[in-house]
């Protein structure tokens, strides 16, 4: 107890230097606490917004698909073989929470009177997709798709680019141009995500002059999937926004799964409603011209004089006016959500073993592998934040160490006198440690506490970062949301303790070496 009284008295006597050291400890603890919370918030944000609302924990692709970055690649993807069998297998696994099959690819938006555009299209059973990904798509104009309904959903970003390139305005089916965002008030327009006010102004000028052409359907043709893709006229059901990370995915377009299959030349569920021979089905199942010459399609068989006409086969398989099972057609991606309790690698390994044992030619990837460009950028930015925290950590050590060292040198007479009256080196050591820990407890503790309060306040404010795609990826969402967890608090205390111990070692050694003779000679 005596040592603490002496330490407190010394701090008060040298309160100027003590205040400087304390402020450095406060600032270091504050920045480390906020930095740790930002990193934690970014990780949680990526899990909540990317995994829960877009990709799932795992993604399944065809085993013969060489591309791993299946969410970002511009090339077409191989079709997953025997999806009904895969679906049945996934439904049997107790560690799988849910899954959503889909197709994706680049499509051309054709305009006979102007330029063509491209768009990144997802073919889905839309209501099933929404249930899996937490209703992340919300309508801005018109309405969303229903399962089994033909139609297209686009973002305001896509509508803008189509207008810029082709000069016409898109209004969802059943809506007039007067009912769209074009004639909405400025307050309503500002609420739209990813909207360029200049394009709305240009469209409004054309409308006022009576020159604005309005369409409510687009002609879509799949690109790069096969030589058999066709142009399909698709009604536009609505303009949509993503609730989270809209700027990251604003180029996405949703299309009903059957229309996607027709546009990209994939086997559709309607195809399976028509009875074909095995060889005819193999021809229709191919998703690229090269696949026609793979060993599993071209087989030794009896020579026949009559060949197959692909156009005739496709005409035979036009959708019937009956209810069809969409799962009987082609998919090239399955997003899988895993129940809590398993790491990504554990879940991937276990699922791959199950797939291999069942003889299903499908490869499992983690979401980070399936969207590697985005995950790598997020990891780099979060790593940069971690480097910043570590940098603050070492700067605090160096600055505090130098300040304490100067204080020890200036107290040579005081420490030498203490040594002259019998104080041992261990007493000087304890005194320096006590002084530093008192400062650390008061100022460092205050820094951690204020840092926690600041993070809670910033999180509650919901500061928007969605206007910048890179910042949105950095923070894992559309808002700046630092998260303080019990582990963050413990980590902050540990970091502060390490800073305190490392910073006091060198000054303490200087103080231990001070002798009474040195004190007298300096005086």
UniProtKB/TrEMBL annotation:
Its main location: membrane. The keyword Zinc does not apply. Residues 387-516 form the ABC3 transporter permease C-terminal domain. GO terms for cellular component: plasma membrane. InterPro entries: ABC3_permease_C, Macrolide_Exporter_MacB. Keywords: Cell membrane, Membrane, Transmembrane, Transmembrane helix. It is found in: Cell membrane. It is a multi-pass membrane protein. Pfam families: FtsX. GO terms for molecular function: transmembrane transporter activity. PANTHER family: ABC TRANSPORTER PERMEASE YTRF, MEMBRANE COMPONENT OF TRANSPORTER-RELATED. This is ABC transporter, permease protein. It comes from Candidatus Moduliflexus flocculans.
């Amino acid at each position: 107890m005596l040592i603490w009284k002496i330490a407190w008295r010394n701090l008060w006597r040298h309160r100027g230097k003590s205040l400087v050291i304390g402020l450095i400890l406060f600032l270091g603890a504050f920045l480390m606490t906020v930095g740790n919370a930002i990193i934690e918030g970014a990780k949680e944000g990526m899990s909540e917004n990317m995994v829960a609302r877009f990709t799932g924990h795992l993604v399944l692709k065809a085993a013969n698909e060489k591309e791993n970055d299946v969410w970002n690649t511009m090339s077409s993807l191989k079709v997953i073989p025997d999806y009904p069998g895969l679906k049945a297998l996934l439904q049997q696994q107790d560690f799988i929470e849910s899954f959503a099959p889909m197709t994706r690819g680049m499509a051309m938006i054709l305009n006979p009177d102007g330029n063509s555009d491209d768009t990144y299209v997802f073919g889905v059973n839309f209501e099933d997709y929404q249930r899996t990904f937490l209703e992340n798509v919300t309508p801005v104009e018109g309405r969303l798709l229903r399962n089994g309904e033909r139609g297209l959903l686009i973002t305001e970003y896509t509508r803008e680019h189509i207008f810029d390139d082709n000069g016409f305005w898109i209004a969802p089916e059943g809506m007039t141009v007067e009912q769209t965002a074009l004639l909405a008030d400025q307050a309503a327009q500002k609420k739209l995500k990813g909207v360029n006010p200049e394009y709305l102004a240009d469209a409004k000028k054309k409308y006022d002059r009576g020159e604005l052409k309005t369409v409510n359907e687009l002609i879509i043709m799949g690109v790069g999937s096969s030589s058999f893709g066709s142009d399909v006229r698709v009604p536009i059901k609505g303009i949509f926004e993503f609730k989270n990370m809209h700027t990251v995915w604003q180029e996405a377009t949703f299309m009903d799964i059957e229309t996607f299959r027709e546009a990209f030349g994939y086997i559709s569920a309607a195809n399976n409603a028509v009875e074909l021979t095995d060889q005819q089905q193999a021809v229709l199942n191919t998703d690229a011209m090269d696949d026609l010459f793979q060993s599993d399609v071209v087989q030794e068989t009896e020579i026949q004089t009559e060949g197959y006409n692909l156009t005739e086969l496709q005409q035979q398989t036009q959708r019937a006016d009956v209810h069809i099972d969409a799962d009987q057609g082609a998919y090239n991606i399955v997003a899988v959500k895993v129940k809590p309790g398993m790491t990504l690698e554990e879940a991937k390994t276990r699922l791959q073993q199950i797939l291999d044992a069942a003889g299903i030619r499908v490869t499992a990837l983690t979401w980070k592998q399936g969207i590697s460009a985005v995950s790598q950028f997020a990891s780099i930015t979060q790593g940069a934040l971690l480097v910043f925290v570590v940098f603050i950590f070492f700067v605090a050590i160096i600055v505090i160490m130098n300040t304490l060292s100067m204080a020890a040198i200036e107290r040579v007479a005081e420490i030498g006198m203490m040594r002259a009256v019998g104080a041992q080196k261990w007493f000087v050591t304890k005194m320096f440690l006590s002084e530093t820990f008192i400062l650390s407890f008061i100022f460092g503790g205050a820094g951690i506490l204020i840092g926690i309060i600041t993070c809670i306040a910033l999180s509650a404010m919901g500061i928007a970062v969605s206007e910048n795609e890179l910042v949105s990826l950095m923070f894992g969402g559309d808002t700046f949301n630092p998260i303080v967890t019990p582990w963050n608090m413990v980590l902050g205390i540990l970091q502060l303790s390490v800073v305190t111990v490392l910073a006091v070692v060198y000054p303490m050694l200087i103080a231990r070496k001070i002798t009474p003779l040195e004190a007298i000679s300096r005086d």
